[in-house]
Amino acid sequence: MKKEALLLISLFLFSCSKGDFKEGKTFIGNQHVTADTLNLGKQVYTEYCMACHGAKGDGNGPAAKGSVPPPRNFTQGLYKFGWVKNSGLPTDEDFKRIIQKGLHGTAMFPWDISDDQTYAVTQYIKTFAPQVWENLDNEPSEPIEVRKDPFTIARKDFAIKKGKAVYHLVANCQSCHRGYATLSELKALGKEFGYDAPEELSSDYYEVKIQESEFYFHDDKERLAKYLPPDFTWHELRSINSLEDIYKRLVSGITGAGMPVWRDVIEDDEIWATAYYVQSLREIKDKPERKELMRKLEEGKK
Ligand code: HEC
Ligand code: HEC
């Protein structure tokens, strides 16, 4: 849908909205939010967000039809892209980044709104899921810590090679995403880094495998969204703008969407190495190197 059409729908919805907040609210972590902030948030939401996320916040706005992935249903109180420990709720900083930078490859654009507007709309979104945000027994989330990159640019090539080994032989990312190495490469990498290599490759080794999620759309709790793990040489990555973003995503996982948390599952230097490797795969998107890699994998099967 064109941005102009969205704006028209938004203006229409805006003119029908009423029922302003008379009182403030208290959210998890003893965060007091004034009625003025919530009213500003509602105004921003109605103008920019409601067309997709819906008047009730259930992801069922008029512009949501046919959107893949569907807009988030805020009544569920479940979110994917925080940088927080233990698959926790996003922090206000996370919401700010998601709203202002958008989610690449989806209908969730980067929204050019001020920090005050962003803060206000974030608080308003929380009012759609009071069972989560107004349950003051819930602990506030803790942001992940970013541990030091042990490789840096100086040892980039080594990091990519190690990451390729970790990706295919330790973390088995290809069990959901796809593989990018031939059997003979895997055997050589196993020898070099001391990891076990497979004797043969499964028939779907080079395919992405669609995953079940915990997200439902609108009020149909039976119909759970399914998400395709990206092929890093092909798809856009929602929350990623840099190497460090990949590291942070691996440390945090993607809550509710089937992408595991990798901190404490593999070593921190293995997470960094895998981030370098994924970044190297992203860099061959739309380049002749991608064609060359696909040809090599095809050859390797014979
Ligand atoms: C054109 C449709 C559209 C509009 C308008 C829109 N969004 Fe979204 N939004 C989406 C889609 C689609 C997703 C789900 C992306 C995914 O699942 O990867 C999403 C997801 C989100 C998420 C969830 C992020 C997470 O970590 O789970 C938040 C928060 C959000 N949008 C806030 C907003 C706000 C605030 C506005 C208005 C300023 C807005 N959106 C406007 C389509 C839209
Ligand atoms: C159990 C299945 C599963 C495994 C194992 C898995 N992933 Fe994912 N991953 C997913 C799914 C599903 C998505 C897409 C989620 C979505 O679209 O919201 C994803 C998305 C991603 C993204 C994109 C994030 C973004 O912002 O779009 C990255 C990067 C990623 N995975 C890296 C990895 C790496 C590296 C490994 C191995 C260390 C791995 N994944 C293992 C299921 C998995």
Give a description of the structure:
Helix 6 crosses helix 7 (183-193), helix 6 packs across helix 9 (268-282) and helix 8 crosses helix 9 (268-282). The longest helix has 19 residues, at 35-53. This protein has a two-stranded antiparallel sheet with strand order 1-2. Strands 3-4 form a two-stranded antiparallel sheet. It is elongated, with a radius of gyration of 22 Å. It has 2 domains: 3-133, Cytochrome Bc1 Complex, Chain D, domain 2 (Orthogonal Bundle); 153-301, Cytochrome Bc1 Complex, Chain D, domain 2, CATH 1.10.760. The protein has 10 helices and 4 strands. The protein is mainly alpha-helical and 302 residues long. The structure holds heme C (2 copies). One heme C (HEC) is lined by residues 80, 167, 171, 173, 175-177, 211, 227, 229-230, 237-240, 246, 249-250, 254, 257-260, 262, 274, 278.
